[in-house]
Amino acid sequence: MTANAGYHLFNTGDVLTAAQVQYNLQNQTIMYFATSAARTAALSGVVVEGMFSYLADTNSTEYYDGAAWQSIANPGDITGITTGGTSGLTGGVTSGTADLKLAVTTNGDLLYGTGSGTVARLGIGSSAQVLSVSGGIPAWSTPSSGGMTLISTVVPSASTGFSFSSISGSYKHLLMTWDGILHSNNSTAFDVRLNANSGANYNSMVYYGANTTLTQANAGGASSYNPTVPVFGKNVANAGFNNTNSGYLWLYDYANTSYAKQCSGAWMFYDSSGAAHTQIWNSQMTFDILTAISSIDITRLSGTGTMTITTNGSVKLWGMA
Amino acid sequence: MGYGVMKTIINCETGEVIERELTAAEIKQQAADEKEYAKAQKVEADKLAAKQSAEAKLAALGLTEEEVASILG
Fold it and tell me: What are phi and psi of A253, to 5 degrees?
């Protein structure tokens, strides 16, 4: 079969030859056929590379590449969209319609990069977990309990004493805070003991300010924190604002069994029977016992009165990590 | 045996709260505590009284309140 003659510029008055009609005109136009079978029949022996045809039954335009008819219905040069196993996408195809989706499977899934162009799926963590980093990649983890844990709260009411018992040894330090403590009369005192120990094991150094005077009140070998200046106050019978007993007490390394325990704290109250009513105490105390502290006892040292809490007051025990 | 004075125990492990009467040993301890407290208060009161006495004597010598405070704190 003769090849197509290519582009030819005709001039006015030219007489077309059969070859020109065939190879310059006909072979370079889009031929019309009812079906591919009709095309095959019509072009038998004359089909040549570069021919175009239109098939009415399929509404398709095709060209002959020298070996077969090829469709030009989808002339784009994208031959496929592939999604690798670590691409973070699914739904790739090499034919037909791509339906790309993120490679997640479950509610709460996250995708994170694992390298250049690759990702991995991270399933949702459990309730209250936080996103952190483990081994250089994101991971759900349970947050540590933080610096402080509220172990217990007590709201004394007409109390003659109470104890925080069975205190776990899992914390580093203990902190007791209290506010709004009120005594039922002005001849009662409440102090603190550790492990219900009433031996002569409490050695405290206390400074207190009463009105304009600063005084030192040490207690060596006492049987409670400081019987001179009880931690939970003495004669705290004035319910006026600022007159109740409040304060804090630290117990450092309370669970150790190698050395004596150190404590420090501060508290204030209004001594309704004393000459210098408003008193603010600052103290350091050593408890000369090696045993781990597992209970804190608020005990009545003197009098017959009880301890109550004013509005919003409480006694709280905290564990410090 | 009841002594009428109650004590509340808060179990920090279980949250259980138990209220019970003081034991005989605790009642005995209370009596000792009363004595120790009274003794401590007397020491403190004596100390305060001595200070006040010193202040009065210094004032009688003609020292001003500020001068006395600068000595005794």
Answer: 45, 50
Tokens describing residue A8: 């030819």
Nearest Cα residue to B12 out of A151, A171, A162: A151
Interface subset of B 12-71, CB within 8 angstroms of A: 12-15, 22, 29-30, 32-34, 36-41, 43-44, 47-48
Q: Is residue A215's pLDDT more than 70?
A: yes
A142 CB within 8 Å of a chain B CB: no
Report the complex ipTM.
Answer: 0.84
Tokens 């050695």 belong to A203
Supply φ then ψ for residue A207, to 5 degrees.
-115, 135
Quick check: pTM over 0.80? no
- Quick one: angle between helices B65-72 and B24-60, nearest 10? 130
> Are B40 and A168 in contact (CB < 8 Å)?
no
Which of B13, B29, B43 minimises the CB distance to A168? B13
Q: What is the pLDDT of residues A240-265, one digit of tens each?
A: 767 899 999 999 999 999 999 999 99
What is the reported pLDDT for B2?
Answer: 43
Phi, psi angle pair for A30, to nearest 5° = -95, 115
Domain membership of residue B24 (yes or no) is yes
What one-letter code names the amino acid at A252?
Answer: Y
DSSP annotation of A4 = P
CA-based nearest residue to A190, from A308, A35, A320, A36: A308
Query: Which domain range does residue B17 map to?
Result: 6-72
DSSP, collapsed to helix, strand or coil, labels residue A316 as: strand
Is residue B1 a part of any domain in this protein?
A: no
3-state secondary structure of A161: strand
Residues in chain A within 8 Å Cβ distance of B71: none
| Total of domains in chain B | 1
Q: What are the start-end ranges of the H helices in chain A?
A: 18-19, 36-43
